[in-house]
Design brief:
This protein is α+β, with helices and mostly antiparallel strands and 306 residues long. It has one domain (19-143, 155-303). Helix content is 21%, strand content 47%. The chain has helices spanning 16-39, 42-57, 104-107, 135-139, 276-291, and strands at 63-73, 76-85, 91-100, 112-114, 117-127, 157-174, 180-195, 201-214, 219-231, 237-246, 249-260, 264-273, 299-303. A hairpin with a 2-residue loop joins strand 1 and strand 2 (76-85).
Length: 306
């Protein structure tokens, strides 16, 4: 007779592990379901928005505000009305809509990490402050700075956005003593990172757009294939390299913006015509327009030979 049918065989007693595992698994499933329901509610999305705001704002002098999280899931979030503000509350970057893939485990440890994302409809303002510094640079300066050596920081990042595709961006550049520059329909691919106790770094590629220099002799440029590097750390500088077209002639524009603690903002512009014919018309025209309103040493324009 088999043991299963033997009346004299000892009765089976569920193991202690099985006794506690079943209610625990049911409890975890119920908690997960409730968490998903809560995250889908207005209160849940608002809590996640405030968490992201703290993760970013705790590391910089400025602040981040998120108007609304429209949807969220395991793969990331979709949000609208995103704004970066400087210390006075003035806008330095605003975005209409953003979709970001998020590392949720990193977010709940205080780090905002995204491997890829997309931003549409943004406005960026670069202007000098009354103190002479650059508003964008000051907004992304570290909240608790520590002495750091030159070059790339080696610590972990509190914010890192990789493969960020931006489109339909409007850029307003208003530097004291220089003509106002308005760039629209900008698109680019960015990598943004804020290391611990260090300023924000930005690298941009495939920059394209249309720029207008509001000088007495207006200049319009078509930009394609440009690059950008922004160091908000110890050096606090931005460099832009853009092939451009001015009045149908090709010209390379190189811009270096330095935000020096004592001297304030300094801008160096180098113009390199693609050929000798372009240098006779386009480069002097652009230089004349840039220099027409300059009455301070903040802007230095030079024309290099092709």
């Amino acid at each position: 007779m088999s043991a299963a049918l033997d009346p004299l065989a000892p009765a089976r007693v569920p193991s202690r592990g099985r006794r506690w595992w079943r209610p625990l698994s049911l409890g975890l499933a119920l908690a997960s379901a409730l968490a998903l329901v809560w995250l889908g509610s207005d209160a849940g999305r608002d809590a996640i928005a405030r968490r992201i705001e703290r993760s970013v704002s705790d590391g910089i002098r400025g602040s981040l505000t998120i108007g609304r999280i429209e949807s969220l899931g395991l793969d990331g979030i979709s949000a609208s009305d995103i704004r970066f503000l400087d210390e006075s509350g003035a806008l330095v970057i605003g975005a209409d809509h953003a979709e970001l893939a998020l590392d949720w485990a990193e977010l709940f440890t205080g780090r905002f990490i995204s491997r890829h994302g997309r931003i549409r409809g943004a406005r960026v303002v670069l202007e000098t402050l009354p103190t002479g510094g650059l508003s964008l640079s000051r907004a992304f300066a570290p909240r608790h700075p520590t002495p750091t050596p030159e070059g790339e920081p080696t610590g972990s990042d509190t914010v890192r956005l990789e493969g960020l595709v931006v489109s339909d961006v409007e850029l307003l550049i208003a530097l004291d003593g220089a003509p106002e520059i308005h760039v629209e329909h900008v698109s680019a691919i960015l990598v943004i990172r804020t290391p611990e106790n260090a300023g924000t770094r930005v690298r941009g590629d495939r920059i394209a757009g249309a720029a207008h220099v509001a000088a007495p002799i207006p200049v319009d440029l078509r930009i394609a294939g440009g690059t950008l590097s922004f160091d908000g750390g110890s050096r606090r500088r931005a460099a832009v390299e853009v092939p451009a077209t001015v009045n149908g002639a090709a010209i390379a524009v190189s811009v270096l913006v330095r935000d020096e603690p004592r001297a304030g903002v300094r801008v160096e512009v180098h113009l390199v015509p693609a050929d000798a014919g372009a240098s006779l018309v386009s480069a002097p025209l652009l230089a004349q327009a840039l220099l027409a309103e300059v009455a301070s040493p903040r802007l230095d324009v030079t024309i290099d030979p092709p």
